[in-house]
Amino acid sequence: MKQEAFPLIFERGGKGRRAFKLPSLDVPEVEAREKERYSAYFRTEAPLLPEVSEPELIRHYTGLSNRNFGVDTGFYPLGSCTMKYNPKINEKIARLPGLTDLHPYQPEETVQGALKLMYELKTMLAEITGMDDFTLQPAAGSHGEFTGLLIIRAALEAEGKKRRKVIAPDSAHGTNPASVSMAGFEAVSIPSDERGRVDLRALKDALDDDTAALMLTNPNTLGLFESDIVEIVEAVHAVGAYVYYDGANLNAIMGKSRPGDMGFDVVHLNVHKTFSTPHGGGGPGAGPVGVKAHLTPYLPLPRIEREGAEKGEARYTLIYNAPKSIGRVRGFAFSFGVLVRAYSYIRALGGKGLKQVSEDAVLNANYLLSRLKEAYDLPYPGPVKHEFVLSGSRQKAHGVRTLDIAKRLMDFGFHPPTIYFPLIVEEALMIEPTETETKETLDAFAEALLTIAREAATTPEVVKGAPQSTPVGRLDEALAARKPVVVYRPDKERS
Amino acid sequence: MTHPYLPLTDADRQAMFEALGISDISQLFADIPDDVRLKRDLHLPEGLSEAELLKTLQAFAQKNRSTESLIHFLGAGAYDHIIPAVVDAVIARSEFYTAYTPYQPELSQGGLQAMFEFQTMIASLTGMDAATSSHYDAHTALAEATLLSLRESKRKKIALSPALHPESRSVVRAYTAGWDVDMVHVPLRGGMIDLDALEATLKGGDISALLIQYPNFFGLIEPLDKIATLTQGYGSHLIVMSNPLSLALFQSPGAYGADIVCGDMQPLGIPLNFGGPYAGYFTVKERWLRKVPGRIVGETRDERGRRGYVLTLQTREQHIRREKATSNITSNQALMALASAVAMSAFGPEGLREMAEQNFHKAHYTLAAIEAQTPYRRVYDGLFFNEFLLGLDRPAVDVEQMGLKVGLLPGLPLSRLFPKTEAPEELADQWERLLLIAVTEKRTRVEIDALVAFLKQVANGEHESQIKPQIELEINDEGWRALKNDEAHGTSKQSDEEGQKA
């Protein structure tokens, strides 16, 4: 990555340049008299859009891409995000004209292949998770959480129960309580115990007849399997509440254990994590939601079903009507282009392959942890599953914060892990290597972190002055928030 | 086992077991209680090689009829537009698509800057001050806009136009399920919101926001100036969902004073994708910048004073504010917003305006030809952009089926979207016979004329078997033919020389 000033696209090009040519208009223009009716409604001021030629456009965006770090650039161990390799064949498949050039409102007989693909995907997801049915509608993980909570809300209402509380451990993803509020519930946080797991006593104290649900990630955000899961689920069900599975960490247990078998009623998955669909610089993802049979009436619309299979004439159809459904949580049916990639990934691995994925993800995490636990504090001991959380508290004693360690890792060519999460670990470094990394990469990353630990003790200014190798140095986030500049204005430059 | 995606060999695994002091992998899973351990293989098909996988997926693709193999006039929120080749060339760069949310700005300046540029473009197009970096789609953006209004107004009622996309209405209903909110449907007059009825609704002073689509679901240009004055006059918010392409031609909602403008970037650079992924946009006036849901990129400086970009105003967000966040959204549609930014950069202000104008001219040409050559008429006579509602004399789904046999989809039968019971009152009588027709710049005159000829045959009651078969799409080789003719007559060179002399 080169260090040089990089212009905005608005600062490139020149008046009248463009990177686009339309076919010439082959119909007569609207007559002047008719057009006159519209005159009061036409736009008078041109929007601020770039004026660049095609070569300039490509140099601009290629330049930007060179100032961006992806999984294909290097190791990207962002905890809880499962930054695994994205297979290239899936990109090719998702671009097949028979899959991309489909209008969502085409008659069903013209999209039988697409519908069959989605039907098979939901069937495979149900098998992987041990659930009875799936909706593929949610556009992201937190969107799945929201959908799942709406399903629980609808089910409780149907049972005549008015309940307000949704419980989640203090180690939960921030999306859990945020989704709870959006769905009109009250978020209740319970502490983790000294093992970093759900504190059973605290849970039982919190459970009552105002409890709608418990949201749980398993393995949790510390990378630890909730070994009391059977007892936890029983306790929640005993008060007539539902148990929700946040599937962010499913990559740890495929083919090993299934949320459905653990007793979860609702599950969401993140296909951009577990099933290798690209993270896209922040999206698009997809967050399918699985339910047990007793909750299928509440699934959102449209639903995809198969008819006539017994007669050997399977036909796939979208169901738009179901009286108990929570309705729609997005436009059209699903993020098809994302889900096609997830389908391809599952078919490429098969059942044995997915199990190997989880085994290697867990092995990589434990191996990396073993190389680091002498130099960094490990507040909650393993063995872990797919990720682990270290604390930078020892380094903090030298005046080096976890933020500094993260920035210093960039100088070694690595993307930093997730930091300052989960909140229950001081100066947290949350590391998820995934199964697609080699032992050599893990060793190199471990060496870098060991070096940084030594630097923290001997030359802390080196760590605190990082990064030195990136296009810009540490950015002033306080300035950005104090006087927000969120759009470019040619007449206004930040001073 | 070995697999191309899994680099560890058995030797690697063995070495790692030794380092961990274990003899096999099961020891790392020993904390999973026996009762919840899966003791069989997953019932999934065997893993496939790359070649087998491609073949399998190609077979699925071949069972579909793509829009490129049909002549179609489908729209209703998803539009078939030209996408410049540069769009895919950029979003296929893996530095963009294999990155995640830019939590570490020093390593993500490219993506952050692209988002900042996107925010600038869409805010300018909508006439607003600020934009987020994306939402899931138009419908969820509208629902989140509704929640923002409810939080700010503390009121408990939402007014909506029945000319709002039916799926938007449904999504807003689902999103507000836990909010104890009433939805008030303001009646239509002539396909647009009835201003008298709107005023009567607003008068109570308890409406949080009016949700309106522009151009609306039936393609009509609502009089936003009057609507804004009325709505805001009663202290309600005006939330407009808008097709961004139309805004290159029509006055922006921001210019009329809208409080929030949202919508879908799909028409600008995003393939139809069978309904997704698309990208919702969300733009506001300055005063709500700190209240909006979703990620925002802001400009700042590094310690040496160099310009750079970061995710900003993060204290609104779930990872910091948890249950008090303005939304639960994290992952958004960054790559699709990038696609749109690239498309908008390619079009430029003039190209985008021309594209919008072509949509306008072609849709008006189509309507004029249908009305001149068939008995079918447009249901409403209001001003429109690239979409209009046509009244037929028989069920629209039957006409669709007839068209399909000859490779032509004449538009969307509204009865396929929702039942008559949910139809706007003024359309209920003819609900089954309504066809929503969208005409983009991609539809050629030949295709439009084929649609008109088809509708004429339908109206004449010609038997299905007589309907003209699908036209062969011609290769555009007129220029080439002209050149060859010139060569044959030996005129080409001559005229060149003459040109030089002149």
Question: Can you walk me through this structure?
Answer:
- The complex is a heterodimer of chains A (495) and B (502).
- With 495 residues, chain A is an alpha/beta fold.
- Helices cover 36% and strands 11% of the residues of chain A.
- Chain A has helices spanning 32-36, 54-66, 88-94, 97-100, 112-129, 141-158, 175-182, 200-206, 229-238, 259-262, 336-372, 393-396, 402-411, 439-458, 460-464, 477-482; strands at 133-135, 165-169, 186-190, 211-217, 242-247, 266-269, 289-291, 303-307, 315-319, 388-391, 418-419, 428-431.
- Chain A has a 7-stranded mixed β-sheet with strand order 1-7-6-5-4-2-3, sandwiched between helices. A 3-stranded antiparallel β-sheet of chain A has the order 10-12-11, with helices on one face. In chain A, strands 8-9 form a two-stranded antiparallel sheet.
- The longest helix of chain A has 37 residues, at 336-372.
- Chain A is globular.
- Chain B has 502 residues and is α/β, with parallel strands linked by helices.
- Chain B has 2 domains: 85-342, 3-Layer(aba) Sandwich (Aspartate Aminotransferase, domain 2), CATH 3.40.640; 348-466, Aspartate Aminotransferase, domain 1 (Alpha-Beta Complex), CATH 3.90.1150.10.
- In chain B, the strands form 5 sheets. In chain B, strands 2-10-9-8-7-3-4 form a 7-stranded mixed β-sheet, with helices on both faces.
- The longest helix of chain B has 40 residues, at 334-373.
- Chain B is globular and about 85 Å long.
- The N and C termini of chain B lie far apart (76 Å).
- The relative contact order of chain B is 0.12.
- The model of chain B is unreliable at 490-502 (pLDDT under 50).
- At the A-B interface, helix 2, helix 3, helix 4, helix 5 and helix 6 of A face helix 1, helix 2, helix 3, helix 4 and helix 5 of B.
